[in-house]
Amino acid sequence: LQRIGVLTSGGDSPGMNACIRAVVRKAVYHGLEVMGIKRGFNGFIEGDMVPLHLGSVADIIHRGGTILHTARSVQFLNPEGRARANENVKRFGIQGLVVIGGDGSFRGASIFNREYGLPVVGVPGTIDNDIPGTDQTIGFDTAVNTAVEAINKIRDTATSHERTFVIEVMGRNFGFIALAAGLAGGAETILIPERPFSYDEICERLMRGYRRGKLHSIIVVAEGAAGGLEVARKIKERTGFDTKVTILGHLQRGGTPTAADRILASCLGAKAVELLMAGETRKMVGIKAGKVVALDIEDALSQTRSIDLDMYSLAGILSI
Ligand code: F6P
């Protein structure tokens, strides 16, 4: 193995840069060359890649976003797009590929491996924490901390004005960010897609608090469970409470990565290079019970990712 490629794909997440750095430094340490592929699989198809050296990844460990840029490539879904990518694999002499991204990116990488045989390793990078095969994804911890910081600030004004606040967080079809941020932020109610809810139940909880003299309340809603605006409208209709909404949106995707995300990114990025050097062909890396693990991509993606419903119940108990 002489030359590998690295790309970031899908939604960016804090810690992707730390991961690129780990891939490059680990590879160079072992005498490999690294090509940085721009804009996810689009750069692969268009042959938009640059050599990355030790210095190319200096001063990025603490930066959010991704220096390689990212995209959700529609072209790579088509066989023609992948055929063009394969031309570039030959042209640039790429012998292995590290894909930092989410499950969609892993699926694309896996299909490409089956079609053209290029060894690929996926590194889970997404704020959603929704990838099976790993306990945590790169960027999740930072996104949760960002959301908690926002909840803290909203709590100040919610308390002063004795208002109900609905805070909508990201997470796509999963409630990982909502549960973690809601528990850490002391939210009175957490709505996640994994657990059905009813407006009667939510309003009953609010009214119970109100009767006890609790005049403010924070409801964290995962975007996959319901829209924040809709939740607020329904609560207002039923209770008459002055209900405000904050949609945290893309601010959850940016910012300097936490130490936990930088450490995770460093360990997983380095492991990906090790796997390519060991001749592995279609793996993803992850963290399980504190240990770095490697799994077959297809096996991992066939598993279902489940949220800790005991933790969800606990959050309910602690916020009565
Ligand atoms: O997958 C990361 C994520 O931020 C999700 O939480 C969210 O649903 C989606 O991406 C938003 O996508 P976009 O940046 O394309 O609006």
From TrEMBL:
Intracellular or extracellular location(s): Cytoplasm
Pathway: Carbohydrate degradation; glycolysis; D-glyceraldehyde 3-phosphate and glycerone phosphate from D-glucose: step 3/4
Residues holding Mg(2+): 103
Sorted UniProt keywords: Allosteric enzyme, ATP-binding, Cytoplasm, Glycolysis, Kinase, Magnesium, Metal-binding, Nucleotide-binding, Transferase
GO cellular component: 6-phosphofructokinase complex
Short name of any one Pfam family annotated for the protein: PFK
PROSITE patterns (alphabetical): PHOSPHOFRUCTOKINASE
Domain of life: Bacteria
Required co-factors: Mg(2+)
Reaction it catalyzes: beta-D-fructose 6-phosphate + ATP = beta-D-fructose 1,6-bisphosphate + ADP + H(+)
Gene Ontology biological-process entries: canonical glycolysis; fructose 1,6-bisphosphate metabolic process; fructose 6-phosphate metabolic process
Activity modulation: Allosterically activated by ADP and other diphosphonucleosides, and allosterically inhibited by phosphoenolpyruvate.
Range of residues in the leader sequence: none
Binding site for ATP: 11, 72-73, 102-105
Molecular function as annotated in GO: 6-phosphofructokinase activity; AMP binding; ATP binding; fructose-6-phosphate binding; identical protein binding; metal ion binding; monosaccharide binding
Main location group: cytoplasm
EC number in record: 2.7.1.11
Binding, ADP: 21-25, 155, 186-188, 212, 214-216
Phosphofructokinase domain span: 3-276
Annotated positions binding substrate: 126-128, 163, 170-172, 223, 244, 250-253
Assembly, per entry: Homotetramer.
Task performed by this protein: Catalyzes the phosphorylation of D-fructose 6-phosphate to fructose 1,6-bisphosphate by ATP, the first committing step of glycolysis.
Family: Belongs to the phosphofructokinase type A (PFKA) family. ATP-dependent PFK group I subfamily. Prokaryotic clade 'B1' sub-subfamily.
Protein name: ATP-dependent 6-phosphofructokinase
Organism classification: Bacteria, Bacillati, Bacillota, Clostridia, Eubacteriales
